[in-house]
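Reviewer 2 asked us to include a model.

Predict the structure of this chain.
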Amino acid sequence: MTLPATTPQTPSLGIVGAGRAGLAVALGLVAAGAPPARIVVRDPQRAAAIAALLPSSVAVDTDTSPLWAQLDVVVFATPDRALAAAASALASVYAAVAADSGANVTWLHLSGVTPPAALHCPDGAHHLGSCHPLAAISDAVALTQAHGADVAAQEAVDALRGACFAVAGDECALGVAVWLAGRLGGAAVEVPLDDRHAWHAAAALVANDLVALLALAERLALRAGAPLAAVRPGLLHLARSSLRSVELATASPTGGLVDGLTGAVARGDAATLSQHLRALASDPLGAAAHRTLSAVLLEMVRAQPGRDPALIAAIERAIATETSKID
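Predicted model (structure tokens):
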């Protein structure tokens, strides 16, 4: 997909909202040599902090003004519940300038599940779309306070670089969304609106549920007597190295997720799995998570050719036996 003919190859772009995602998009575009023209930050104190992170060419506004009617693209980076109100406010700006202003403007939002129609404009002239990054984004303002502006900016850029962006919208909006994803160093994939909740749930499993698993693991390790100062960085290192193992395994054309798997299920070690589940007997949430995910891993392992059926059966019995004891 390419940009629609009515849109310049480097469109003038504004961002409404400067939370984690909006600020990361702004910093990513700056790094790509296509900085946004304007960004709206409602909180004056945060606006000052954001202005310090962005080049002086980026206008940091506390509200939309008639100057926003001159932009080719507007990216809405507000919470889902605020999208309609933000779009309505900007539509009023266009209406106050001229009846036909914004006829070729593209509006995108960054939501994973909300349809582009949430950006409804009364005159119906705008191209509407969405561009949802599959990325866990930290707040660059908070990172600046802890680690400095250079680190904060780089973390924001890196979070989006290599990300998969789910895009949707009319033909013109899709072209702009693909351009935006590419400028930020990511790749775009068109996800039908009817399947967006499945897409977003998939993202939540990796981004949100992983944090829950770390919390359960941290609680268990602390119960074993390990100090928090060692437990937290140790588990984070383990998570990173596990993901790296999977990344390397799947880099091969024939590699799959299971090829990067380690641990009891991968080895067919039913005794160790049983011990894990017994250790979790006093933690119902942890036990339920471990046995459910072990069952998922077992299905992956079972599908591999050459696996010993006896070891597969032993893992099945371990999950079933310890589940009945816990329940």
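The two ends are 53 Å apart (CA to CA). Residues 168 and 174 are 6 Å apart (CA to CA). We have added this to the supplementary material.
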